[in-house]
Specification:
CATH topology: Endonuclease, Chain A
Strand content: 5-15%
CATH superfamily: VSR Endonuclease
Order of helices and strands: HHEEEHHEHH
Distance between the termini: 53 Å
Number of strands: 4
Oligomer: single chain
Structural class: alpha+beta
Length: about 140
């Protein structure tokens, strides 16, 4: 069996992907921060360094870690996709991200933290459901 080579992405693809922010992204973190403020939900911090995996949002009292996963980079089953160009590279990268997400969630749960993960598309399509879920876990 011959495995496909894991080539690096093209320079133009690299430049395009580099422009996508990993934190402070408007379609993920900033959208949820705005929803939390709009719904007067308090007691959270962003990216605490002392919590494994550096959750996007953390509620200290509730020991609740929230991650907002981008559909492309984390492989959303509904709308994530593998690019046609250099598909083997992206498939491997997305699988590594999914594996890391699972490992981080497990470690946090073992340390008695609650973990909630939202897809970027959930936050866009059903923001009130996301808020209700946070309220359910944060009280």
């Amino acid at each position: 069996m011959v495995l496909p080579s894991l080539e690096k992405p093209s320079l133009s693809r690299s430049a395009n992907m580099r422009a996508i922010r990993s934190s402070g992204n408007k379609s993920t973190e900033l959208r949820l921060a705005g929803l939390l403020k709009q719904n007067c939900i308090r007691g959270w911090r962003r990216h605490p360094r002392n919590i494994h995996g550096h959750p996007d949002f953390f509620f200290n009292r509730a020991r609740l870690a929230i991650f907002v996963d981008g559909c492309f980079f984390h492989g959303c089953p509904r709308c994530g996709h593998i690019p046609k160009t250099n598909g083997a590279y992206w498939a491997a990268k997305i699988e590594r991200n999914k594996s890391r997400d699972l490992s981080v969630s497990r470690k946090l749960r073992r340390a008695s933290f609650r973990v909630v993960r939202f897809w970027e598309c959930q936050l866009r399509r059903h923001p009130q459901n996301c808020i209700e879920r946070i309220l359910r876990f944060s009280t």
